[in-house]
Amino acid sequence: MTETSLRAARAPRETKAAGLEPLAVLPVFVPLRGKRVVLAGSSGGAPWKVKVLAAAGAHVDVYAPEPSEELRAVPGEIVDGQVVLHERTWSPDDLWGAAFCIGAMEDEAECVAFVAAARGAGAIVNAVDRPHLCDVKFGAIVNRSPLVVGISTEGAAPVFGQTVRARIEAMLPRGFARWMGAARDWRDGVTARFHGFAERRAFWERFTDRAFAEPDRRPTETDLAELLGETEAAPKGGAVTLVGAGPGDAELLTLKALRALRNADMILYDDLVAPEILDYARREARTMLVGKTGHGPSCRQDDINALMVQLARSGKQVVRLKSGDPLVFGRAGEEIEACRAAGIPVTVVPGVSAAQGAAAALGVSLTHRDAARRLQFVTGHDRRGALPDDLNWGALADPSVTTVVYMPKRTLRALLARAVAEGLAPTTPALLVFNATRPNQTALRGTAIDLADRVEAAGLDGPALLMVGEAFSEMRGALPAQAEPNRVAV
């Protein structure tokens, strides 16, 4: 009798994203090249706004009866667009034909009148330092044009927004502007060359990889030729990628895992995958829950294999998203074999394993050189859900070994009792870590002889990992008295 026959089966089911969280404002980008813009007034923010408008290629008419010296200097400082300074008060007739109007005057009544006149002329309106009068608002800008990043805090924390802008500035090489210019120049040719969406997307994925690898050099026609050739030579059709999602913390995803999620057409994921990890998938990707939970209702492995093959044969890029590392007790072998048998290309993106994540969160070395000569990963149950008959008990009892047991909850007491009977010292430090790397991570600490009693008394739940060995003795001495999220309990 197999493990799946002992528990209720369930079918894979498509899931839907919860959708966007509420937005304080809608981020939109307004093309102004060649269009007329009016700015009236000469308050402190006027010069910068004129420069931004001109940088967007607009024809800017500035109406200011007493312009500041800084505002007077702007027409000679612009590098794009056009600025004309009119040293007089604005009139309603000045606003006709303007796509965008900005009021930069100190007087509230005059600003209200300007806004009303601009709206009457059919223009979008912004009023400097008067958010209650604005149709749109300016934010912080990171300029790698045509790559432009806009940042808004909706007035809640402008300094915070400026700090975010500075961080993004540091992350985005200035050379990206050259690559974005090349993308603009090459786009029509690429579209004409590749009629299918999948091939065009593959081209731009290769383009992006090259831009990130060499951001500071200018792309050339040689780059274009190589990218076109690589795309044409690439295998066509669907494929499967097994991706390790890590034990829970989304920040532990690898760059390669992120790329796979952003390229996927279909994502088949397990119950233990943290929901926020799916937020990194491209918006058009469909998601299906193919849950496999220990000792609970689970999708049959044969059904998952068949679904992967079916989707890939239909031309889809399929990501099989697994908690931890797919090659560590993740049944990756069966899924790889199913794909190969069907002639489906399959690759694996490793992830941070639950053992690595738990050890890092606890700040303990699994292979401390004074305590461990070997590290071993063991499964806590067999296909029937029982304690495996063929465990190497001599290896488990070795005092120079750190042992990590996956899926140990049901067999914890029997496993530790048998290990002690086979020679493991009863006082050997032992930990059971729940929800490794997640905000509610909790670890119960004990010894091989008493940990099972502590676990039963605590009544904790969630995916668990058993860690046994003298490597954990260094944690003795500075531990809290009770189990709390992200804590260790004695």
From TrEMBL:
<dbReference type="InterPro" id="IPR014776">
    <property type="entry name" value="4pyrrole_Mease_sub2"/>
</dbReference>
<dbReference type="InterPro" id="IPR006366">
    <property type="entry name" value="CobA/CysG_C"/>
</dbReference>
<protein>
    <submittedName>
        <fullName>Siroheme synthase</fullName>
    </submittedName>
</protein>
<dbReference type="InterPro" id="IPR003043">
    <property type="entry name" value="Uropor_MeTrfase_CS"/>
</dbReference>
<keyword id="KW-0456">Lyase</keyword>
<dbReference type="GO" id="GO:0032259">
    <property type="term" value="P:methylation"/>
</dbReference>
<dbReference type="GO" id="GO:0051266">
    <property type="term" value="F:sirohydrochlorin ferrochelatase activity"/>
</dbReference>
<dbReference type="InterPro" id="IPR050161">
    <property type="entry name" value="Siro_Cobalamin_biosynth"/>
</dbReference>
<comment type="pathway">
    <text>Porphyrin-containing compound metabolism; siroheme biosynthesis; sirohydrochlorin from precorrin-2: step 1/1.</text>
</comment>
<dbReference type="InterPro" id="IPR035996">
    <property type="entry name" value="4pyrrol_Methylase_sf"/>
</dbReference>
<dbReference type="InterPro" id="IPR006367">
    <property type="entry name" value="Sirohaem_synthase_N"/>
</dbReference>
<keyword id="KW-0627">Porphyrin biosynthesis</keyword>
<keyword id="KW-0808">Transferase</keyword>
<dbReference type="GO" id="GO:0051287">
    <property type="term" value="F:NAD binding"/>
</dbReference>
<dbReference type="Pfam" id="PF00590">
    <property type="entry name" value="TP_methylase"/>
</dbReference>
<dbReference type="InterPro" id="IPR019478">
    <property type="entry name" value="Sirohaem_synthase_dimer_dom"/>
</dbReference>
<keyword id="KW-0560">Oxidoreductase</keyword>
<dbReference type="Pfam" id="PF10414">
    <property type="entry name" value="CysG_dimeriser"/>
</dbReference>
<comment type="similarity">
    <text>Belongs to the precorrin methyltransferase family.</text>
</comment>
<feature type="active site" description="Proton donor">
    <location>
        <position position="270"/>
    </location>
</feature>
<dbReference type="InterPro" id="IPR012409">
    <property type="entry name" value="Sirohaem_synth"/>
</dbReference>
<dbReference type="GO" id="GO:0009236">
    <property type="term" value="P:cobalamin biosynthetic process"/>
</dbReference>
<dbReference type="GO" id="GO:0043115">
    <property type="term" value="F:precorrin-2 dehydrogenase activity"/>
</dbReference>
<dbReference type="GO" id="GO:0004851">
    <property type="term" value="F:uroporphyrin-III C-methyltransferase activity"/>
</dbReference>
<keyword id="KW-0511">Multifunctional enzyme</keyword>
<keyword id="KW-0520">NAD</keyword>
<dbReference type="InterPro" id="IPR014777">
    <property type="entry name" value="4pyrrole_Mease_sub1"/>
</dbReference>
<dbReference type="InterPro" id="IPR036291">
    <property type="entry name" value="NAD(P)-bd_dom_sf"/>
</dbReference>
<dbReference type="Pfam" id="PF13241">
    <property type="entry name" value="NAD_binding_7"/>
</dbReference>
<dbReference type="GO" id="GO:0019354">
    <property type="term" value="P:siroheme biosynthetic process"/>
</dbReference>
<feature type="domain" description="Sirohaem synthase dimerisation">
    <location>
        <begin position="177"/>
        <end position="218"/>
    </location>
</feature>
<keyword id="KW-0169">Cobalamin biosynthesis</keyword>
<comment type="pathway">
    <text>Porphyrin-containing compound metabolism; siroheme biosynthesis; precorrin-2 from uroporphyrinogen III: step 1/1.</text>
</comment>
<feature type="domain" description="Tetrapyrrole methylase">
    <location>
        <begin position="240"/>
        <end position="451"/>
    </location>
</feature>
<dbReference type="InterPro" id="IPR000878">
    <property type="entry name" value="4pyrrol_Mease"/>
</dbReference>
<keyword id="KW-0949">S-adenosyl-L-methionine</keyword>
<keyword id="KW-0489">Methyltransferase</keyword>
<feature type="active site" description="Proton donor">
    <location>
        <position position="292"/>
    </location>
</feature>
